[in-house]
Design goal:
Elements (H helix, E strand, L loop, with lengths): L4 E2 L2 E2 L9 H23 L11 E2 H8 L3 H9 L7 E2 L5 E3 L1 H13 L18 E6 L7 H14 L4 E5 L5 H5 L4 H4 L7 H4 L12 E2 L5 E4 L6 H12 L9 H9 L5 E5 L6 H9 L2 E6 L3 H23 L8 E6 L7 H14 L12 H8 L14 H25 L3
Parallel strand pairs: 6-10, 6-11, 7-9, 7-10, 11-12
Antiparallel strand pairs: 1-2, 3-5, 4-5, 8-9
Helix pairs in contact: 2-3, 5-15, 10-11
The structure holds adenosine-5'-diphosphate and magnesium ion.
Length: 404
Amino acid sequence: MARDHVDGRPEKRQGRQQRIDQLVGAHAGRLSQRLQAHRAQLFPESTRRELRRFTSGEAAELLGVKDAYLRKLHLDGRGPSPEIRAGGRRLYSHADIQSLREMLEAGAKTPGTYLPGRRAGDPLQVICVINFKGGSGKTTTAAHLAQKCALDGYRVLAVDLDPQASLSALHGFQPEFDLLDGGTLHDAIRYEDPLPLSAIVRRTCFTGLDIVPGNLDLMEFEHETAGALGRRSSELFFTRIGDALSEIEANYDLVVIDCPPQLGFLTMSALSAATAVLVTVHPQMLDVMSMCQFLLMTSNLLGVVAEAGGDMSYDWLRYLITRYEPGDGPQNQMVGFMRSLFGENVLNHAALKSTAISDAGMTKQTLYEVERSQFTRATYQRALDSLNAVNGEIEGLIQAAWGR
Ligand SMILES: Nc1ncnc2c1ncn2[C@@H]1O[C@H](COP(=O)(O)OP(=O)(O)O)[C@@H](O)[C@H]1O
Ligand SMILES: [Mg+2]
């Protein structure tokens, strides 16, 4: 007798010979290979990326001094020797800029003039970038914030908590290829044999910016935590990221966590470790409606964590308007709506939508990495001004959290 039901479910129609798992697996294999080849083409010499050099004008602006002063330091033989190009143009590496910072700070009247990071007694800042809407600009925001802070002289750790690993990709890691034997935060927060975070942290091509890359391993934490909760294990899940960070705490001023687009155990544990929260939002009706659901769920879940003893205190929470188009009427209405509802919790500056940002992303780079000659001057400058303004505002909040 022909069976037409298996386990009470209708048998799949005859003639479907292909298996989804096999087809998708084959596609993943092909894609991964092509992506690797693409990377080898973009960064040919090695997989290790090198950051471009900065013009003397850019270096002076980052340091907050006049170019003429940098030139004088160079002529006097003080500080690092920049690379000299045709016409006497001076080019500084990020490491050069950092050693200039250290030199200038040593001679500065007011401490923190050139090195803005923590001083004795200042707590580590842990900024979580969240929203469960994919495409709201979390990764772009986290990458540009982490890199700009590093360029400004902070010691920064970027953590990719999203199994999709876009932040890692932006820093030159191909998750399924470079991280075969682990190497994500999961190794440090898993319940069995966790590693110290210091064994996982990697350097980036930015001086002072380290990264903990991500990949699909991170998903394990969701399953393991569900298991631990089911067994009523005494292990607390929400302290695990904070505990992992405490080991390397002294090495950094600031941690930027790119959260996954969902409110699972990873995000909740990150929020327990957070001292500040940045919610990215694209100012369109569907995005704002989705954010409403996100905020409701966050509030409920974090309330439960707080009752269980989780630390939900923070220094600041801000909404950041992303991919903003100032000429778009409906977007402006949404922005006005958010400002009227959330007041000072909305950052004054917005991240403008710019092809310079999305095009840089196409080559897995940020605006701070790309050669500006690739863009028309006005396009690049407008995008840069916008992101610098956003990051500057956030740096102000970091300083305020340290009482400055
Ligand atoms: N300000 C911007 N201007 C133009 N494109 C942007 C901007 N911010 C983000 N994007 C693009 O939008 C897409 C989604 O951004 P992403 O940061 O990856 O969002 P999320 O991490 O929230 O999913 C990416 O392709 C990115 O390059
Ligand atoms: Mg992302």
